[in-house]
Design goal:
Length: 403
């Protein structure tokens, strides 16, 4: 056995070795953009909850929204691994920008592409790709959260379409969205249906959620539907039951698994640069063994987690992935990234809470990411059921919430 390759501190398991030229090209394109156009303004955007539309439009010019959908409408050629690499580079700057990318692509564009008509696709997907319009994915409700099976928003069939009533909360991009992908139960058969609903239709009210300490670069909102008349052409005809929105969520969760590791990498980079320049007790902090252990632990968890993401990405491309793999990735990546951000904050001491160093911003963002798109507990239950064959829940609503 011979070892000839050089040690690469920021890529110790040589992830790039397993990427294609096209994947590296996409990664470099987005990295250069994110560092050049998003990074310089991220502190301002976070402090003031500003620059959302500008950021969305700048990303739209890259032609990357929608992942594999993008190429069909004049955008980049993006496979599953490239999609993850994009999420990683955006979240290296801020989780909010990856959230924007996830909502526009994995949730809104995927829902239209998978469940819509050709007319719906042609009408909306090119505009979403270029960020001419903004979309939101309206599933979560204020009284139910992870228990999506208990949602109360409902539609009643009318002569010309449907009448929509209900309330959604924690909907990413909702305050600025031009169209809403709304999930509601049909009063007739109690089945879940999906709709593309323009926000300007009478009876729709959106309210920005104020007071957030996390994810301040992107807006979340509450949406109220008061007997909203929705035309028949708004229905997503191929959407059937809860499996439809969950398929969109799995796309987003896969991107999250890559993305949070970008945030973790940035925390490691910041901590490493800090200890290499900071003197304490007569020498550089980097010489202290306790500091080195913390840094090495960060590096090991990031490197191994990225290899897991790459493996699942290749399985997705081969048609061999399943939703349990996505739960493993989301659970592992976010858990590890959150711990890494905490350790980086600890290494920086008091400086760790100043936004000039970015670490605290990553930390509070990750506190939200560990909750949305399936909490850590929900993904644990999904995997626990698959591992043991046992399900403790007895109600239909709880059973659906873990699918």
């Amino acid at each position: 056995m011979q070892f000839n390759a050089n040690y690469i501190p920021n890529d110790p398991l040589k992830l790039d070795y397993f990427l294609t030229e096209k994947e590296i090209e996409i990664k470099n394109l987005v990295k250069e953009f994110a560092q050049g156009h998003l990074k310089p303004h991220v502190s301002e955007a976070f402090r003031n909850e500003s620059l959302f539309i500008e950021s969305a439009q700048k990303i739209g010019k890259l032609g990357i929204y929608g992942g594999e959908i993008a190429k069909r409408y004049g955008g980049q050629e993006i496979n599953a691994v490239s999609y993850g690499l994009i999420a990683r580079e955006l979240e290296r700057v801020d989780s909010g920008y990856r959230t924007l990318y996830s909502v526009m692509g994995s949730l809104v564009m995927h829902a239209i592409d998978a469940f819509g008509t050709e007319q719906q696709k042609d009408n909306y997907l090119p505009k979403l790709l270029n960020a001419e319009i903004v979309g939101a994915f309206a599933l979560t409700e204020p009284e139910h959260g992870s228990d999506t099976g208990g949602l109360e928003t409902h539609v009643t069939k009318t002569v010309n379409g449907y009448c929509l009533s209900g309330n959604k909360k924690w909907i990413g991009l909702a305050p600025y969205a031009d169209i809403l992908i709304v999930w509601a139960k049909d009063d007739l058969d109690n089945e879940l249906k999906g709709f593309i609903v323009p926000r300007e239709i009478p009876g729709i009210t959106t309210k920005k959620i104020e007071g957030k300490i996390s994810l301040r670069t992107v807006p979340q909102g509450e949406i109220y539907f008061n007997n909203v008349e929705v035309p028949e052409c708004a229905l997503l005809p191929k959407a059937k039951g809860f499996s439809s929105p969950f398929s969109c969520l799995n796309h987003a969760r896969y991107g999250i698994a890559w993305g949070v590791l970008g945030a973790a990498e940035n925390c490691l980079e910041i901590a490493l640069n800090y200890v290499q320049s900071r003197d304490a007790f007569g020498t550089k902090l980097a010489t202290k063994q306790l500091i080195q252990k913390k840094l090495v632990d960060m590096q090991v968890e990031i490197a191994i987690s990225l290899q897991a993401c790459l493996q699942v990405g290749r399985l997705i491309e081969a048609g061999e992935a399943n939703h349990h793999m996505i739960s493993i990735l989301k659970l592992n990546s976010v858990r590890k990234a959150l711990q890494i951000s905490r350790n980086a904050r600890d290494i920086l001491g008091a400086n760790g809470i100043i936004d000039d160093y970015d670490v605290m911003r990553h930390l509070v963002n990750l506190e939200s990411v560990v909750t949305y798109e399936g909490t850590e507990d929900i993904h644990t239950l999904i995997l626990g059921k698959a591992l043991t064959g046992c399900l403790l829940y007895t109600s239909d609503a709880c059973r659906r919430s873990t699918l």
